[in-house]
Amino acid sequence: MLAGRDLLGAAQTGTGKTAGFTLPLLQRLAENGAQGATGKQPIRALVLVPTRELAAQVHESVRNYGKHMKMRSAMIFGGVGFTPQANEIRRGVDIVVATPGRLLDHVQQRTIDLKSIEILVLDEADRMLDMGFIHDIRRIIALLPVKRQNLLFSATFSDDIRKLSGSILRDPAVVEVARRNDPIELIAQSVYLVDRDRKRELLAHLVKTGNWQQVLVFCKTKHGANRLAQQLEKEGIQADAIHGNKSQPARTKALKRFKDNELQVLVATDIAARGLDIEALPHVVNFDLPNVSEDYVHRIGRTGRAGSSGEALSLVSADDRPLLRDIEKLINRKIDQKSIAGFEPTKGPQAPEKDDRPRRQAQPRREQQPRRSPPARPSTRSGERPQHARRAGADQQPRRNDGGRPARPQTQRPGARSQPSNDRRPAHDDRRPAMPMDRREEERLAQVREGQRLARSEQAEHAPSPQAAAPAKSSGGIFGFLKRKAA
Prior knowledge:
Blueprint: E1 7-10, H1 17-32, E2 45-48, H2 52-65, E3 73-76, H3 82-90, E4 95-98, H4 100-108, E5 119-123, H5 125-128, H6 134-142, E6 149-154, H7 159-165, E7 173-176, E8 187-193, H8 199-209, E9 215-218, H9 222-234, E10 239-242, H10 248-259, E11 265-268, E12 283-286, H11 293-300, E13 310-316, H12 321-331, E14 336-338, H13 439-462, H14 469-473, H15 477-486
Parallel strand pairs: 1-6, 1-7, 2-4, 2-5, 3-4, 5-6, 8-13, 8-14, 9-11, 9-12, 10-11, 12-13
């Protein structure tokens, strides 16, 4: 590394990989001196890590190892304020420890310049190069200068990861401290066989009977971690949970309480399985076995660090047997299996796991809601108009059972032709009420009817015979009569 060559390093957990790249990195930067634009401190080294907790730990190591050197460092990760990080970068730093997502946020906001990077470090490289991070890693590498030193460190390297790292490293030196994917020998591993629904009881039994004061427990899901911590609290065991849904201050506070022995049990998801250094941690429990076998090595590697011994227990139900076989195949050894009296697993298939997550009450769909029946319309055949057909100021005309038409005026002679009513609907349509008649329209129709009656009376008096009635009708009718009367 001091010669500037790319490096692929594999070592067991707890053997000092962070110090292995931090000390040479500080020495190379001190020897080369600052480079870049005058008056502005360039960023010369970039360390990428997968989790916030690991970023804080690596940054603390950089500060401790280089506290007597004139170098500044900064850590960048999500879950905290963006502006304080941007202000610290603006003041000038030599080394940046970051998670990929928040680093790209700073790149988009143009608060960081990566054009002067001399050394790129990928800690926990197998997770960094996983499919979930590979796109972000490639975007970041495209922003770096072509001439740089690349360092990849991890405790596990699959064959696929080794092939993928070939696109980043150039003629790397490979350093393997121990056999690949092999956990440290100082960790005593064991498996406790138990039914799935009795795992929590067995864990509480082990903590109480063994008087365990510091236990790190791993779960698969965030909700499972919260639920287990709450159940242990009810058992009188001080416990808390950390996972991706917790805020960064809450995660930092819980981790600090655990390191200070204020918590007996810390329940975590795999965010705590990568690189966390908890001094002299005695017990690690796999409440759920991981789906990825390599994560088992990282989980149990939280104990047995820096030459100290530790114990790693796994609670295995019948459903976990395939995962256990994959883990034993990876580490190339059989793990001792035990059972405790009173917690022996039952034979035969177990009942499916109950999902007791809180769920919102389902709201019925609109079409499933009972529909309100429309109010029954009163029939117009009853002779009474409905209330909604009445208007203020309109006369209430008497109704007849004749399809809703208004009654004829009493002045009309029997046998006379019926005049059109105010109702424009067809005579057979009696489903809707008739519209009320306006007073002026009513007076006009009354005058017209009276004029017709007088005209017919006058024609009947002056007509000599029925044959002479035809010219009278053709002489203008009511309009001719009105003209003659006016003359």
